[in-house]
Automatic annotation (TrEMBL):
Residues 39-58, 183-208 are annotated as: Disordered. InterPro entries: LpqE-like (IPR007410), Lxx211020-like (IPR058248), PCuAC_sf (IPR036182). Keywords: Signal. Residues 1-33 form the signal peptide. It comes from Populibacterium corticicola. This is Copper chaperone PCu(A)C. Residues 187-208 have a biased composition (Basic and acidic residues). It comes from the Bacteria. The lineage of its organism: Bacteria, Bacillati, Actinomycetota, Actinomycetes, Micrococcales.
Length: 208
Protein backbone atom coordinates (compact mmCIF):
# COMPACT_ATOMS: atom_id res chain seq x y z
CA UNK A 1 0.00 0.00 0.00
CA UNK A 2 2.79 2.34 0.90
CA UNK A 3 4.47 1.60 -2.36
CA UNK A 4 1.28 2.32 -4.23
CA UNK A 5 0.69 5.54 -2.25
CA UNK A 6 4.27 6.74 -2.67
CA UNK A 7 4.12 5.95 -6.39
CA UNK A 8 0.75 7.61 -6.84
CA UNK A 9 1.84 10.98 -5.36
CA UNK A 10 4.67 11.60 -7.81
CA UNK A 11 2.38 10.62 -10.66
CA UNK A 12 -0.22 13.17 -9.56
CA UNK A 13 2.50 15.83 -9.29
CA UNK A 14 3.73 14.91 -12.78
CA UNK A 15 0.22 15.15 -14.19
CA UNK A 16 -0.27 18.50 -12.47
CA UNK A 17 3.06 19.78 -13.83
CA UNK A 18 2.25 18.52 -17.31
CA UNK A 19 -1.12 20.24 -17.11
CA UNK A 20 0.53 23.53 -16.14
CA UNK A 21 3.00 23.24 -19.00
CA UNK A 22 0.20 22.43 -21.43
CA UNK A 23 -1.84 25.38 -20.15
CA UNK A 24 1.10 27.74 -20.51
CA UNK A 25 1.76 26.45 -23.99
CA UNK A 26 -1.89 26.90 -24.85
CA UNK A 27 -1.86 30.49 -23.56
CA UNK A 28 1.30 31.24 -25.50
CA UNK A 29 -0.20 29.78 -28.67
CA UNK A 30 -3.42 31.74 -28.15
CA UNK A 31 -1.51 34.97 -27.65
CA UNK A 32 0.54 34.29 -30.76
CA UNK A 33 -2.55 33.37 -32.74
CA UNK A 34 -4.34 36.51 -31.58
CA UNK A 35 -1.33 38.60 -32.47
CA UNK A 36 -1.22 36.98 -35.88
CA UNK A 37 -4.91 37.59 -36.40
CA UNK A 38 -4.48 41.22 -35.37
CA UNK A 39 -1.67 41.72 -37.86
CA UNK A 40 -3.66 39.91 -40.52
CA UNK A 41 -6.68 42.09 -39.74
CA UNK A 42 -4.54 45.21 -40.01
CA UNK A 43 -3.10 44.04 -43.32
CA UNK A 44 -6.57 43.19 -44.58
CA UNK A 45 -7.96 46.57 -43.47
CA UNK A 46 -5.06 48.34 -45.13
CA UNK A 47 -5.62 46.36 -48.31
CA UNK A 48 -9.32 47.18 -48.29
CA UNK A 49 -8.61 50.88 -47.72
CA UNK A 50 -6.12 50.88 -50.58
CA UNK A 51 -8.74 49.20 -52.76
CA UNK A 52 -11.32 51.81 -51.74
CA UNK A 53 -8.90 54.62 -52.56
CA UNK A 54 -8.19 53.05 -55.94
CA UNK A 55 -11.91 52.60 -56.54
CA UNK A 56 -12.54 56.25 -55.72
CA UNK A 57 -9.80 57.19 -58.14
CA UNK A 58 -11.57 55.16 -60.85
CA UNK A 59 -15.09 56.25 -59.87
CA UNK A 60 -15.32 58.95 -62.55
CA UNK A 61 -13.71 58.39 -65.92
CA UNK A 62 -13.60 60.59 -69.01
CA UNK A 63 -13.95 58.84 -72.34
CA UNK A 64 -12.57 60.44 -75.53
CA UNK A 65 -11.91 63.94 -74.13
CA UNK A 66 -11.08 66.52 -76.81
CA UNK A 67 -10.95 70.26 -77.47
CA UNK A 68 -11.77 72.05 -80.70
CA UNK A 69 -8.69 73.71 -82.19
CA UNK A 70 -8.74 77.50 -81.89
CA UNK A 71 -6.35 80.41 -81.70
CA UNK A 72 -6.14 83.16 -79.10
CA UNK A 73 -6.40 85.69 -81.92
CA UNK A 74 -9.53 84.18 -83.44
CA UNK A 75 -12.79 86.10 -83.49
CA UNK A 76 -14.29 86.02 -79.98
CA UNK A 77 -11.38 83.74 -78.92
CA UNK A 78 -13.58 80.85 -77.80
CA UNK A 79 -13.57 77.09 -78.07
CA UNK A 80 -15.10 74.10 -76.26
CA UNK A 81 -14.22 70.77 -74.68
CA UNK A 82 -16.17 67.56 -75.06
CA UNK A 83 -16.12 64.07 -73.53
CA UNK A 84 -18.30 61.36 -72.04
CA UNK A 85 -18.19 61.23 -68.25
CA UNK A 86 -18.89 57.84 -66.69
CA UNK A 87 -19.81 57.28 -63.04
CA UNK A 88 -19.19 53.79 -61.66
CA UNK A 89 -20.44 54.59 -58.13
CA UNK A 90 -23.89 54.06 -56.64
CA UNK A 91 -24.38 57.79 -56.05
CA UNK A 92 -24.83 60.67 -58.49
CA UNK A 93 -21.83 62.96 -58.95
CA UNK A 94 -22.02 66.60 -60.03
CA UNK A 95 -19.46 68.34 -62.24
CA UNK A 96 -19.42 72.01 -61.25
CA UNK A 97 -16.27 73.54 -62.75
CA UNK A 98 -13.26 73.12 -65.00
CA UNK A 99 -9.91 74.80 -65.47
CA UNK A 100 -7.65 74.75 -68.52
CA UNK A 101 -4.37 76.57 -68.93
CA UNK A 102 -4.75 79.05 -71.76
CA UNK A 103 -8.42 79.85 -71.08
CA UNK A 104 -9.13 82.67 -68.63
CA UNK A 105 -12.88 82.04 -68.38
CA UNK A 106 -14.51 78.60 -68.39
CA UNK A 107 -18.20 77.82 -68.02
CA UNK A 108 -20.46 74.79 -68.28
CA UNK A 109 -22.88 75.38 -71.15
CA UNK A 110 -25.94 73.84 -72.70
CA UNK A 111 -27.32 74.45 -76.18
CA UNK A 112 -31.02 75.21 -76.48
CA UNK A 113 -33.45 76.81 -78.92
CA UNK A 114 -34.94 80.18 -77.99
CA UNK A 115 -38.51 81.34 -78.67
CA UNK A 116 -37.56 82.37 -82.20
CA UNK A 117 -35.95 79.06 -83.10
CA UNK A 118 -32.41 80.36 -82.90
CA UNK A 119 -29.78 78.23 -81.21
CA UNK A 120 -28.64 79.69 -77.92
CA UNK A 121 -25.60 78.62 -75.95
CA UNK A 122 -26.43 79.18 -72.29
CA UNK A 123 -24.47 78.92 -69.07
CA UNK A 124 -25.77 76.15 -66.80
CA UNK A 125 -26.79 77.04 -63.27
CA UNK A 126 -25.24 74.54 -60.88
CA UNK A 127 -23.51 71.82 -62.85
CA UNK A 128 -23.80 68.61 -64.83
CA UNK A 129 -25.07 65.67 -62.78
CA UNK A 130 -23.62 62.30 -63.72
CA UNK A 131 -26.13 59.66 -62.60
CA UNK A 132 -25.18 56.69 -60.44
CA UNK A 133 -23.85 53.85 -62.61
CA UNK A 134 -24.47 56.10 -65.59
CA UNK A 135 -22.90 58.65 -67.90
CA UNK A 136 -23.24 62.20 -69.19
CA UNK A 137 -22.29 63.08 -72.73
CA UNK A 138 -20.72 66.44 -73.53
CA UNK A 139 -20.82 66.86 -77.30
CA UNK A 140 -21.00 69.42 -80.10
CA UNK A 141 -24.50 70.82 -80.37
CA UNK A 142 -25.29 69.82 -76.78
CA UNK A 143 -23.79 70.25 -73.34
CA UNK A 144 -20.13 71.20 -73.27
CA UNK A 145 -17.35 72.94 -71.37
CA UNK A 146 -16.92 76.42 -72.86
CA UNK A 147 -13.41 77.90 -72.97
CA UNK A 148 -13.37 81.68 -73.37
CA UNK A 149 -10.94 84.58 -73.25
CA UNK A 150 -8.19 82.44 -74.70
CA UNK A 151 -4.63 83.46 -73.85
CA UNK A 152 -2.99 80.62 -75.79
CA UNK A 153 -3.51 78.80 -79.06
CA UNK A 154 -5.09 75.36 -79.01
CA UNK A 155 -3.27 73.60 -81.84
CA UNK A 156 -4.52 70.35 -83.36
CA UNK A 157 -2.49 67.43 -82.11
CA UNK A 158 -1.59 69.03 -78.79
CA UNK A 159 -2.67 67.41 -75.53
CA UNK A 160 -4.08 69.78 -72.92
CA UNK A 161 -4.97 68.95 -69.31
CA UNK A 162 -8.50 69.77 -68.19
CA UNK A 163 -9.00 69.81 -64.42
CA UNK A 164 -12.59 68.88 -63.63
CA UNK A 165 -14.02 70.02 -60.30
CA UNK A 166 -16.87 68.19 -58.58
CA UNK A 167 -19.37 69.27 -55.93
CA UNK A 168 -17.67 66.90 -53.47
CA UNK A 169 -14.50 68.97 -53.70
CA UNK A 170 -12.64 66.24 -55.60
CA UNK A 171 -10.84 66.93 -58.85
CA UNK A 172 -9.98 64.85 -61.90
CA UNK A 173 -7.24 65.80 -64.36
CA UNK A 174 -8.16 64.76 -67.90
CA UNK A 175 -5.68 64.90 -70.81
CA UNK A 176 -7.64 66.12 -73.83
CA UNK A 177 -6.47 66.02 -77.44
CA UNK A 178 -6.93 69.16 -79.54
CA UNK A 179 -8.68 68.44 -82.85
CA UNK A 180 -9.71 70.31 -85.94
CA UNK A 181 -13.49 70.27 -86.22
CA UNK A 182 -15.14 71.47 -89.42
CA UNK A 183 -18.59 71.64 -87.83
CA UNK A 184 -17.54 74.44 -85.51
CA UNK A 185 -17.43 77.36 -87.91
CA UNK A 186 -20.39 79.25 -86.50
CA UNK A 187 -20.21 82.78 -85.14
CA UNK A 188 -20.24 83.27 -81.39
CA UNK A 189 -22.04 86.61 -81.22
CA UNK A 190 -23.11 87.99 -77.86
CA UNK A 191 -26.72 89.12 -77.94
CA UNK A 192 -27.50 92.35 -76.15
CA UNK A 193 -30.97 91.11 -75.31
CA UNK A 194 -29.86 87.69 -74.11
CA UNK A 195 -29.56 86.77 -70.47
CA UNK A 196 -26.19 87.16 -68.85
CA UNK A 197 -24.10 84.12 -69.73
CA UNK A 198 -25.95 83.41 -72.99
CA UNK A 199 -24.48 83.63 -76.49
CA UNK A 200 -26.28 83.50 -79.83
CA UNK A 201 -25.22 81.19 -82.64
CA UNK A 202 -25.43 82.49 -86.19
CA UNK A 203 -25.23 79.06 -87.79
CA UNK A 204 -27.92 76.44 -88.32
CA UNK A 205 -26.15 73.23 -87.35
CA UNK A 206 -25.61 74.25 -83.69
CA UNK A 207 -22.20 72.54 -83.56
CA UNK A 208 -19.39 74.08 -81.49
Amino acid sequence: MNITTNFGAPMRNSVRLAGMILCAATLAFTATACGGNTEAAKDNASSQETHREASRGQAITAVDPWIKAAGAGDTHAMTAAFMTLKNSTDDPVELVSATVEGAELIELHETVADDHGATIMRKVDGGFEIPAQGERILEPGGEHIMLMELSADFVAGDVVDITLGFASGEELVVPATVREFSGAQEEYAHEETAKQGEHGHEDHDSDH
